[in-house]
Amino acid sequence: MADRHFGGIKIRHLYKIFGPNPQAYIEAVQNGLSKAELNEKHGHVLGLRDINIEIPSGGIQVIMGLSGSGKSTLIRHVNRLIDPTAGEVLVDGVDIVKMSTDELREFRRHQTAMVFQKFALLPHRNVLENTVYGLEVQGVARSKSADIAMKWLERVGLKGFEQKYPNQLSGGMQQRVGLARALANDAPVLLMDEAYSALDPLIRMDMQTVLLDLQKEIKKTIVFITHDLDEALRLGDQIAILRDGQVIQQGTSQDIVLRPADEYVANFVKEVNRGRVVHVEAVMVPLQGNAAPAGAKIAAGTTIEEAVRILASVPDGDVTVVESTGKPIGTVNFRRLAVAMVNSHSLSGQPANAATKEQSTTDAIGF
Prior knowledge:
CATH superfamily of the largest domain: P-loop containing nucleotide triphosphate hydrolases
CATH architecture of the largest domain: 3-Layer(aba) Sandwich
Order of helices and strands: EHHEEHEEHEHHHHEHEHEEHHEEHEEHHH
Largest sheet: 6 strands, mixed
Structural class: alpha/beta
CATH topology of the largest domain: Rossmann fold
Number of strands: 14
Mean pLDDT: 88
Shape: globular
Helix content: 25-40%
CATH class of the largest domain: Alpha Beta
Strand content: 15-25%
Oligomer: single chain
Strand order of the largest sheet: 6-7-8-3-9-10
Number of helices: 16
Low-confidence stretches: 344-367
C-alpha cells in the first residue's frame, strides 16, 4: 500500500435498478416510486435506493441486513463488479463509476481485495499457489510473491499447510487461505462478503478474533457484510443496517443498541447481550467540574461485562472512567454496572423519535 494517507470510501446517492431498461425508471424511483410498484408495473427490481455512506480510512464498516436487503449488491459496487444505475462511489477520492476499463482493472488489482463466503479457492492449486495468485496477476516475481504469501499464511495460522490442497482443509482453514490471499495483495480496501457465514459458530468466532487482531496492525479499510447482528456488533467500528435496499440506520454499536431508529432495528437488537456491547460511558455518572477523583481507574471503551469483572473486588467504591489521554470523565461502581446488566431491556429503550433522540444515554438506560 502506498505510504500516503488513504482517503477512505464515500458512497453518494447510489441507486441500482435491475432490469432491461433501468435508466427509464431512475427518475421515478428518485421521486418516490416504491420497490413493489417498480416490480409489479414495470418488471424491474430495485436493488438499492439512495445509499449514502462514508467509510473512514482504517476502520471496519459493517453492512448488515436480512436476505434480499441489498447488502451484497452494495459491496459489489465498491469494486464495480456491479455498475450503479445512478450515484457516485469515491474510493480514495476517485469516482470508480467513471473509470475506464483499463483504469478499473488496475484499481481492482492494487486498491481492493475480496474475501468470499464460499472461499473461492482454486482446487488445482495448493495453499501457497492460491495465496500468491493475486500477486501473480500483478506481475510480482515468484520469489518475492512466495515470501509475501508465506508471511501471511503464518500470520493466519497456516504455516506448515502451504503444500496442502483446498479439499484437504477444513472450512475454517480454507477461509484462512482466502484471507491470506487478500492480505498478500496489500490493497488498502478489503471487501468481505459474508466471509464467515458458512463456518461453524466456534470457527466463526475464531476467525473474527483473527481479523480483529490483524486489523490492529494492518489498519485496512474493511467493508464487512453479514446478516448476523452479534458479528456486526463485535467487528464493526461503524454499522449500517439495510432493509429493502435502503439504509435504515447508521452508527456505532452503541448507537444501534441504545438508540434503535425504528421498530425494525429495535427487533434486531432486543435479544443482544448488552453487557458485551455497551461501554461504561453509557452508565457512568459524568464528572461535575474539573475535579479528578483519587483511587482506581477504568478506561473508557470498556464494556459493562468486562468492567463488572474488573470492579468485582471493589463493589462498594466508585471507580473513575478515564479517556485514552488519562482525562477523567466520570465515575461508575459495581452496583451501577450490575443493575445495567440485569435491566438489559431498559438499555434498548424505545425506537428513536424526536423525544428519545434528545435524551441522554443515561436517561435511556433508566438511571
